[in-house]
Design a protein that fits this description.
This protein is of the alpha/beta class. Helix content is 53%, strand content 18%. It is built from seven helices and eleven strands. It has helices at 12-25, 39-47, 53-58, 74-88, 107-123, 209-288, 294-327; strands spanning 2-6, 30-34, 62-64, 92-96, 127-133, 153-162, 165-175, 185-190, 193-196, 201-202, 205-206. The chain has a nine-stranded mixed β-sheet, with helices on both faces.
Length: 328
């Protein structure tokens, strides 16, 4: 059993129509108890959001049983609902809205009647959707009938006022036995039914309507600015890399030219060094007499020896003369 509560115009009946449309599309029978609108009104209104309920009525998958609450008492309404459920054997039952039953009884009596109805539907393993009109927007989490504790799932729809406009929001207040979202979701009514929008939170809370659109555009502009900045930095990095490559190529070319010049200088220096070494070797050989011209070398050696012998003879003669003088 599911309860959808909310203020007037918040989308309760549209959500109920969504459930009926989905169930009939699965070939499940649905029974609708409208206490506020007639069948033609509901069919016409749901066509505006893209649901052709007459198609399911003609196929025998959807039955309406409209009844004004003041036509019968609570017990008679309950008996008639049991009878319709037993005859049609539906898989889904919608009661829209249960708060109208308080027109023919107190809240306590209406709650007792709805408690018996909920127990009956659960005993028959029928999925039930109840809508409840919330009269106090400041206390939307309080139902006028007080049957929220009987329900397995409780959805709250309300109008959110922001920037001078009203937008629809959906809450999951509880859902027994299953995990559920704790976010406030904006939904809009389109020609394809009600559509949930992505959660868009800002510094002031959940953004809806034009505030969400403005924030989305600002985020898109910021993302575009960031992408442009990243692209600019990438181009700057690429330009610096190209400049570095050019500088490295120039340094390599200058190094190659300097290296070639230095290699030629080193080669010339080595040739000069080799020539000087050869000249030193020739001079050394000339000084020691080891030349290639043996005749001239021997002639100079003989003349030198002759001068040396002559000098020795002179010394001997002088020595003899000196001894003779001393003896004398």
């Amino acid at each position: 059993s599911t309860l959808v509560s909310g203020t007037p115009g918040s989308g309760k009946t549209s959500i109920a129509a969504h459930l009926i449309h989905a169930a009939c599309a699965r070939n499940e029978r649905c029974l609708y108890f409208p206490f506020e609108e007639s069948q033609p009104q509901i069919v016409r209104n749901m066509q505006s959001i893209g649901f052709d309920l007459n198609r399911w009525v003609s196929r025998g998958l959807l039955r309406f049983h409209p009844a004004r609450p003041h036509l019968h008492g609570l017990e008679t309404h309950l008996a008639l609902m049991h009878k319709q459920i037993a005859q049609f054997d539906p898989q889904v039952v919608v009661v829209d809205p249960v708060t109208n039953l308080t027109e023919i009884g107190s809240a306590i009596e209406a709650k007792a009647m709805l408690t018996r109805l909920v127990d009956f539907l659960k005993g028959q393993r029928i999925t039930a959707l109840f809508t409840s009109l919330t009269s106090d927007a400041d206390h939307a989490e309080l139902t006028d009938v007080g049957i929220s504790s009987l329900m397995d799932t409780w959805l709250l729809v309300r109008n959110l006022e922001c920037n001078g406009e009203r937008n629809r929001g959906l809450y999951v207040l509880k859902s027994r036995g299953m995990p559920h979202s704790n976010q406030i979701r904006e939904f809009i009514l389109t020609d394809r039914g009600a559509e949930l929008l992505d959660v868009y939170s800002g510094s002031a809370g959940v953004l809806t309507g034009t505030a969400r659109l403005i924030q989305e555009e600002q985020d898109k502009a910021m993302a575009l600015t960031q992408r442009n900045e990243i692209e600019r930095k990438r181009r700057e990095l690429e330009s610096k890399r190209e400049a570095m490559d050019v500088e490295i190529a120039a340094l390599r070319a200058r190094f190659a030219a300097d290296s070639s010049e230095l290699e030629r200088t080193i080669a010339d220096a080595r040739r000069v060094e080799a020539s000087l070494a050869e000249q030193r070797k020739v001079l050394i050989n000339m000084r020691t007499g080891h030349t290639s011209n043996n005749g001239s070398s021997n002639g100079r050696k003989g003349a030198k020896n002759g001068r040396q012998y002559q000098t020795d003879a002179d010394r001997r003669d002088n020595g003899q003369k000196e001894r003779a003088r001393v003896q004398k």
